[in-house]
């Protein structure tokens, strides 16, 4: 038995079968770069992964069959998205893989490079071209070139090209060589792809031809022809898109839901090149899933929100940890849909609407989730972890999810309708009386309420005057004090517990003074200086009181807390001394 199998058993769930776990698979990817596809048309789906590698090198397109690696191809740049789509009607019907990387889309057919699509170049600032032309003719030196480009960067409406931005980052000794190397080359301004999706062309069938939908860094959304890879439609967004969900058919009607970097979600439709609806979020989105006609969004503030297609908020669920990834779980044979949410506390939560119906424990933080048909098994859950591990689980055929399995909130009995009896004649008469005498009843209620408030105010004033609740009324120096008298007499120990109830401000320069009948009591120390009072801590101050009378009488000792140099006390308390059991010995 391998050493990771006990760990695998520890997070097993009764609804899932643990099919495979490889903690050293070296797969570093996100949900946007993972897909399940029948690449060879044999009815057996393979796992296609765009591996990020180290972020600088070892970027690869990997294909898994079962638990083993089938093939891998090197990628020239970091993949930002990956989709599987049918691009033609030719037999056999084998899908192609489109990998978005930088400004390019690499299309693979039968696991071989088939086509490379490049985003159209953007408009270059004419003033920037003039400045580089002057540098090409040696009319200006590199220092002047930098000053002119900095002025254009701050004022121009058209952003600078990558070449100019890279030049502005150089040290002065590196500028001349950079200009000599690049001044003969034409200036180009190229954007990059941030997200990619798939849109059915004219039929909703599962094996229908699909168009590619791509979002770019400059806020444009393109729909590409599946065969010629030309731009069929272009739409614009106010910000750069980061997450995308596509539904519908291009020739009929479609909706593209896009989460952007400005923290908003925009909904694009066929009849408008601009967003039709806008959803403003309280925090940035990190996951976007469409479930039926609703949109589920995971945000950075550990919340999950549900919205309609027109942007109306339906519900909010609060999560125990930040969201790392999200995916749709759909079982068409059972008519079941749910949202899988990967959390930073090594858990995957399954939500149906706002109800938590299942929780899956994982040995590491999940970074990507994919659910669907893998091999010949329909209900397969595939996850990759932060440490590069690969987890494969299979849903049991006997698994049943209840909307109230793990949902928090009121009990089910609260939603059961009560058997309310019919209205009686007494109830009807009472209702008529309340309607006819509404003004008089309201006045009586207000009178009783005023009397209650007056009684409470009088009790409060009486408590302040008798110092039953020794609390400071000052907002700048909130103090609290209580006294404890110990002993049977004639000697008593008097302990004052003083506390600063402020949130963060200390109190200093305070003193305590006692006022008492000198014929009845004597005190060793009748005046104290209080040390600095730190908020929240209790400071005990002790002194001793001697009773001088043998008549079995007692009196009140008054305690005053004052600020040094001030005559008005901040706090006053009355201490009822007990009757002494003896006479002090002089």
From TrEMBL:
The superkingdom of the source organism is Eukaryota
Q: Which UniProt keywords apply?
A: Acetylation, Cell membrane, Cell projection, Cilium, Cilium biogenesis/degradation, Cytoplasm, Cytoskeleton, Membrane, Olfaction, Protein transport, Sensory transduction, Transport, Vision
Q: Name one Pfam family in it.
A: GAE_BBS1
**Which InterPro entries does the record associate with it?**
BBS1 (IPR028784), BBS1_N (IPR032728), GAE_BBS1 (IPR056419), Quinoprotein_ADH-like_sf (IPR011047), WD40/YVTN_repeat-like_dom_sf (IPR015943)
Q: Could you give one GO CC term from the UniProt record?
A: ciliary membrane
Q: Which GO terms describe its biological process?
A: non-motile cilium assembly; protein localization to cilium; protein transport; retina homeostasis; sensory perception of smell; visual perception
* Gene3D superfamilies found in the cross-reference section: YVTN repeat-like/Quinoprotein amine dehydrogenase
Indicate where this protein is primarily found. membrane
An example of a GO molecular function for this protein is: patched binding
Q: Which residues form the Bardet-Biedl syndrome 1 N-terminal domain?
A: 16-269
Report domain Bardet-Biedl syndrome 1 protein GAE positions. 479-581
Subcellular locations according to the entry: Cell projection, Cilium membrane; Cytoplasm, Cytoskeleton, Microtubule organizing center, Centrosome, Centriolar satellite
Assembly behavior: Part of BBSome complex, that contains BBS1, BBS2, BBS4, BBS5, BBS7, BBS8/TTC8, BBS9 and BBIP10. Interacts with the C-terminus of RAB3IP. Interacts with CCDC28B and ALDOB. Interacts with PKD1.
Protein name (Swiss-Prot/TrEMBL): BBSome complex member BBS1
